[in-house]
User: Which sequence fits this backbone?
């Protein structure tokens, strides 16, 4: 039996994963900014679920979530950094305050939780850290530059972390979901207040009032949750787990386009070595 600490369990993928973990028979520290949003879920599994209020940008709440999980279940075996929200704006439209809040949530809050669970994992020489990224880290769509940036940052951190902790018996991997039928493109989506007309045809279609994806995403959150549990239980998680048929297709197309561009400019790019 494992003990999971999952952030952002009020809705969406985080909630589906928390429920699946509990149904799987594992323990779970189920977290959300408002504890009333997760109380009913936790109450269905009183022996295995510990509901904790957690805003990942709050240092006190981060420490408390880990401490209470260890006190109740003995250890945190799996950390899933899932908490976050969508943000859309042209790069020029985004405010510095919005950008900082996005990085505080998706990057700095997640890294702080990693740092909080690692001492126990190092002591036991076991553990798994799963960081939820997005196919947006690869696609870098107009209007989603800041969101792509925070996810790319977490993928870079995860890749280095994996190399650092693997010799210690700990696994770290990133998960890149595509579109799943959640509130991500609805209630959880934020955008800049500033609107610049020159970006109406590029970033503009990504704004909430023009978005048509909510409620039409192809992915089933319950199936995503089951797949994540299977990867964690396998003991051989890939460095990057691409999740969803649309994400797999988009990742392949993006990788092929990058390879073609690399080949086109390869000779010039490789011509800059010092000649001895």
Assistant:
């Amino acid at each position: 039996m494992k003990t999971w600490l999952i952030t952002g369990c009020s809705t969406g993928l985080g909630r589906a994963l928390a429920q699946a973990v509990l149904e799987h028979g594992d323990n779970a520290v189920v977290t959300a900014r408002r504890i009333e949003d997760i109380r009913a879920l936790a109450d269905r599994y009183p022996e295995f679920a510990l509901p904790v209020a957690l805003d990942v940008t709050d240092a006190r709440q981060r420490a408390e979530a880990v401490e209470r999980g260890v006190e109740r279940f003995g250890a945190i075996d799996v950390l899933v950094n899932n908490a976050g929200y969508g943000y859309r704006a042209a790069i020029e439209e985004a405010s510095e305050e919005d950008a900082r809040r996005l990085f505080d949530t998706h990057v700095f809050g997640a890294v702080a939780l990693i740092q909080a669970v690692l001492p126990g994992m190092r002591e036991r020489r076991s553990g798994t850290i799963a960081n939820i990224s997005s196919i947006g880290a690869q696609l870098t769509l107009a209007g989603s530059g800041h969101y792509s940036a925070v996810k790319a940052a977490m993928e870079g951190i995860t890749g280095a972390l994996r190399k650092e902790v693997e010799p210690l018996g700990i696994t770290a991997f990133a998960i890149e979901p595509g579109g799943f039928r959640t509130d991500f493109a609805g209630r959880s989506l934020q955008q800049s207040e500033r609107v610049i007309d020159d970006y109406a045809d590029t970033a503009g279609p990504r704004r909430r009032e023009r978005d048509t994806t909510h409620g039409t995403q192809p992915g089933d959150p319950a199936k995503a949750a089951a797949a994540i549990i299977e990867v964690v239980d396998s003991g051989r998680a890939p460095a990057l787990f691409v999740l969803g048929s649309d994400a797999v297709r988009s990742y392949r197309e993006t990788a092929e386009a990058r390879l073609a561009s690399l080949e086109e400019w390869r000779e010039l790019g490789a011509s800059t070595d010092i000649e001895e």
The domain at 3-246 is CATH 3.40.50.720 (Rossmann fold). The chain has a mean pLDDT of 95. The two ends are 59 Å apart (CA to CA).
